[in-house]
Amino acid sequence: MTHQRVYLDYAATTPLDPGVLEKMLPYFSEKFGNPSSIHSWGQQAEAALENAREQVAGLLGCSPKEVIFTSCGSESDNLAVRGATMRASQQRGARHILYSPVEHHAVSRTVEQLVKLHGFEGETLPVDPYGLIAPEELARRIRPDTALVSIIYANNEIGSTNPVQELARVCRSAGVPFHTDAVQAASYLSTNVQELEVDRMSLGAHKFYGPKGVGVLYVRSGTPLIPLQTGGSQEFGLRAGTQNIPYIIGFAAALELAVTRRENRTRQVLPLRDRLVGQVLEAIPDAALTGHASKRLPNHASFVFKNVDGNALLMHLDLAGFACSSGSACKTGSPEPSDVLTAIGLERDWALGSLRVTLGKDSTPEEVEAFTQALPALVAKLR
Ligand SMILES: *Cc1c(COP(=O)(O)O)cnc(C)c1O
Q1: 6-15+262-382 maps to which CATH number?
Q2: Distance (Å, rounded) from C-alpha 88 to C-alpha 58?
């Protein structure tokens, strides 16, 4: 019997929305101008670019001058972290970086490089067993010479969602810029920067049904950055390089859908996710949910199974037609528990058996049912 393939890895990437693709297409062909050119082709491209910027600004609750288009979520994180710390170091001698131990590698590896090559002092904040940061802990550790605080909004591996507004307020009262990686959060949680009170926020379109290879960094005005990519004066001098107009159009269109359909999408995935979690924990012994039970993304389920090889489980699931993830980006089969699972204190014999199952707008009850039927036997076989 052949069976259908079921995609349960929407945290890794999402399919491009067909309506978004349609809006992008003319900018690959007839509307091909360079937005920096003086002539009418250039003006057409520039108008499209500035429209997209205004649209994004409207959706984020900021001014168009505060929206920087980048090539991906990782680049936004890099620009936020490296650009801000370099500037803070130059302007006020601040050399201390506070971040969480459960950041995406786009943040954590950037901080590690700043420490190793540029002599910054990196300090990780304590997290609770769900991977959450307490604002009081941040308040205790923030210093006058802290260059930047960077804390992830919604965790890609374990789904937990941090109290971003409270964390941002601690930073604001200390006069330290606050960055949040909202790449995973944008599909389901508020990205209104006035509400969140953040100073920088990273987004990437392919996590919300936009194209891969385009991101945004929100930069609150008056909180300057050093550009990482120098050259032309595109993006207010913060990112040189001719803008990728079709992808930027795609970013704006996808963000519009994310914001306007957020509640509907949440209503659709939340009961499915809750059923999935309940059935997995009921059917499988020595299984645990990772991340917080309720302070988490509504489409996100993540587990650990004691004494199971997580990579082998993923391969068996794939053979059975189910596309899932271990949650961490590592797919080389290296038998090291992820940084995130280590940071939340999981023992090795649990942490190596991780599984992330993430739902999306095309997920159905039948797919979830088929998955929860198939999983227990696979886990049992691998033990
Ligand atoms: C996917 C992801 C990134 C990286 O985004 P890209 O656009 O793939 O570079 C960064 N942070 C988080 C939390 C993510 O989930």
Answers
A1: 3.90.1150.10
A2: 28
**Ligand 1: residue whose CA is nearest its atom 12:** 183
Q: Residue 201 to residues 60, 185, 233, 235, 241: CA-CA distances in angstroms?
A: 10, 11, 22, 16, 21
Instruction: Please report which confidence band the pLDDT of residue 304 belongs to, taking 50, 70 and 90 as the band edges.
Output: very high
The span from the CA of 357 to the CA of 302, in Å, is: 6
The 10s digit of each residue's pLDDT in 246-298 is 999 999 999 999 999 999 999 999 999 999 999 999 999 999 999 999 999 99
The CATH number assigned to the domain with range 18-260 reads 3.40.640.10
Location of each CATH 3.90.1150.10 domain in the chain: 6-15+262-382
Q: How far, in Å, is the centroid of ligand 1 from the Cα of 184?
A: 7
Predicted confidence (pLDDT) per residue in 12-64, tens digit: 999 999 999 999 999 999 999 999 999 999 999 999 999 999 999 999 999 99
Interval between CA 174 and ligand 1 midpoint (Å) = 28
Note whether 81 and 111 are within 8 A (CB). Answer: yes
The answer to whether residue 1 scores a pLDDT higher than 50 is: no
Q: Is 72 an annotated catalytic residue?
A: no
For CATH 3.40.640.10, list the domain ranges present in the chain: 18-260
pLDDT number for residue 4 = 81
Name the one residue in this structure whose structure tokens are 């945004």: 216
